Every structure is written in C-alpha cells, then in structure tokens.
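User: Predict the structure for this protein chain, please.
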Amino acid sequence: MTADWIPEYGFHLRKAGVQFDAIRVDGDAGRRLADLMEELVGGEPGPVVSESNGRRGVYFLVPPGSTAGRPWPREVTTFNSATGRISYVPVPALGGDTW
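Assistant: Here is the predicted structure, written as structure tokens:
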C-alpha cells in the first residue's frame, strides 16, 4: 500500500506543507547528502526524490511545518506553506521511468 499522494504513473506536483515539507539540495552535493543519510541510518533515510536532469535536485521530504522559520545553509531551498508562500514539489510514481 502506498500513500494516496504518490501517483500511479508519471509525476505530479504536490503542494508542500500538506503531506510534507521538503528541502532541495542541487547537484552532486544533494546526491552526497542522500548517500550520507542512507549510510547513517542503515539504508532507510526516508522519502527522497531525485531529479536526473536540469539542476539534478535532490528533495528530502520531511514532516509538514518543519522547514519554516529555521535557518538553512545557502545551498538549501525550502518548500513549505509558510505565510504568504506556496511551494510545489515533483513527486514521481514508485515504478517506471519518469522524466
């Protein structure tokens, strides 16, 4: 069984701050961070969405409301529903190639 916000095929944009907030780290730094988190927690770092084109962003999905009002390094982009802000995160289907 999967969460109802994960699409069956392709990808959908999901509004941050509802089911999750997210942080994005672009390029090689994002991939290194995902690998490090996987190593630190023994293989289950939580939900991570990785882009294979463009900025090659790596999105780390975290509990809703957990990214707003906190300091983040300059390399991190936050996605949430803080006052006056609307953010969307690409969520791919669990199977198949999604571009």
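The radius of gyration is 13 Å.
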